[in-house]
Design a protein that fits this description.
The protein has a two-stranded antiparallel sheet with strand order 1-2. Helix 4 packs across helix 7 and helix 5 crosses helix 18. About 70% of the residues lie in helices and about 0% in strands. The chain is built from 19 helices and 2 strands. By secondary structure, it is mostly helical. The N terminus is likely disordered. The chain has one domain.
Length: about 450
């Protein structure tokens, strides 16, 4: 039994009865992830030391219940473990390979060059993931703006490279890769979201240009002239890792039998780490800390998410959500305050349950990827809305998407002033990003 089988069996009433209280470990874990980084230094230290134990313990509560109490619960747990291995193999391998690429720049960037850099970063995010693109590009972004680097430079980098950019391929952002693992074809989303992606990205870059142009004009005339006439000097270290990135991208299309796909990705990551010069890792301040955190937290998220998905399969049709805009804003709101990967999965489940309740015939006898593809045929706009809501709104707060806090941490360590959590939201997200995302949803959904 898989999640997709839960989807398909919802209409027939064969889904095992899931008690609501069993969803509490999932809610508790997400709340801890969201709240603990914002607490006092002492509490943050406790969380940083014990989060692996908390995540695994909460996950084990659900796993033990399913193995002991739920018919075919073992199959659900095995399927979840398989998806987790696939997920962390992609995220981890991209993280390691991206950590072996170091881009050096000299000089001071102009507003036009900055816009071009962010646009290239947005495109790159779809090939190396928002995590990979953020890790590769945030340090050169800081260096090329070192004379006038400001809070808005960090915020718009998070908007564009760490979130919005990765909305058109499954490699781009973790939620979309989870959709791919559940049966959404690799290229299904691209032609359905391209116009909204270009529209949203274009507006965000236009607003950034206005901010950056004002900042550039406030510089002393001597520095303005220097930035305008002196070309950027680029240096690219770790070129061999470009080849390993291509291997990882190609591995996405390999069959998932016998973990061929995952072993290929992990093999590329190991080769990258061994062959990358130590100097490159040192200049990138590379460590396994961030991916260790992702690995431990998501093992808990994947496990505790099982009953949440089951409960939605049973009761999702009662929520009365039928319009794409409802899915767009609802998934977006939760992605902003929680993590966007589990948000995507739960709203994809809700869309599937809604489609089954409205017209169960197309789903009869279908399980797995076939059932998901039936959803794509019956309610494509719901899936588009969940995909874009989960990815775009992940930029609304530091906790909406994994790369956000990584970028903030690297920027802070580099001496850049970063907004506080509420400063980020009140100064940038609410007045700038939210109206753009709302307009895009209203025009295209």
């Amino acid at each position: 039994m898989s999640y997709s089988l839960l989807f398909a069996s919802a209409a027939s009433g064969t889904v095992p009865e899931i008690p609501l209280w069993l969803v509490s470990p999932f809610v508790l874990l997400l709340l801890l992830i969201a709240v603990m980084p914002l607490t006092s230094a002492a509490m943050k230290h406790v969380w940083e030391h014990y989060y692996p134990h908390v995540s695994v313990a909460l996950g084990l509560c659900v796993v033990v219940y399913y193995l002991a109490k739920v018919p075919q619960g073992g199959e659900v747990v095995i399927h979840t473990a398989h998806e987790y291995i696939s997920f962390i193999s992609l995220i981890g391998s991209l993280f390691v390979v991206a950590g072996g690429i170091h881009i050096k720049v000299k000089g001071e960037s102009t507003p036009a060059i900055n816009v071009a850099f962010l646009a290239i970063g947005a495109i790159a995010a779809n090939f190396i993931g928002t995590t990979g693109a953020s890790m590769v590009l945030i340090r050169p972004w800081i260096r090329m703006n070192k004379i006038r680097i400001s809070a808005f430079h960090v915020v718009f980098f998070i908007f564009v490279v760490s979130n919005i950019g990765g909305a058109i391929t499954p490699i781009g952002d973790p939620p979309l890769f989870l959709g791919y693992l559940r049966g959404v074809p690799f290229f299904w989303l691209i032609d359905r979201v391209m116009l909204q992606w270009i529209f949203t990205l274009g507006l965000v870059l236009a607003v950034f240009y206005l901010f950056d142009r004002r900042s550039f004009k406030l510089m002393p005339a001597r520095l303005q002239h220097q930035a305008a006439v002196e070309p950027e000097t680029w240096r690219f270290d770790g070129f061999v890792n470009v080849l390993f990135l291509l291997v990882i991208i190609a591995a996405v299309f390999l069959p998932d039998a016998f973990f061929i796909r995952e072993l290929t990705m992990l093999g590329a990551a190991v080769a990258s780490y061994v062959l990358t010069p130590k100097m490159v890792h040192e200049e990138n301040a590379f460590s396994f800390g961030p991916i260790k955190e992702v690995a431990f937290l998501f093992v808990g998220i994947f496990a505790t998410m099982i009953p949440a998905l089951g409960y939605l399969a049973q009761n999702g049709s009662e929520l009365g959500m039928h319009h794409p805009l409802q899915y767009y804003f609802a998934s977006g709101f939760l992605s902003a305050v929680l993590d966007n990967a589990p948000t995507y999965v739960n709203f994809l489940q809700l869309a599937h349950t809604t489609a089954i309740s409205e017209n169960p015939l197309p789903f009869v006898g279908l399980t797995g990827a076939e059932s998901v593809r039936a959803l794509l045929g019956q309610k494509p706009l719901l899936v588009v809305a969940v995909s874009l809501g989960s990815v775009f709104f992940g930029a609304m707060t530091y906790i909406g998407n994994g790369p956000n806090f990584m970028v903030k941490s690297i920027s802070h360590d580099s001496g850049v002033h970063c907004p506080t959590f509420f400063g980020y939201v009140l100064r940038f997200s609410l007045p700038i990003l939210l109206p753009i995302l709302a307009l895009g949803g209203w025009l295209f959904l």
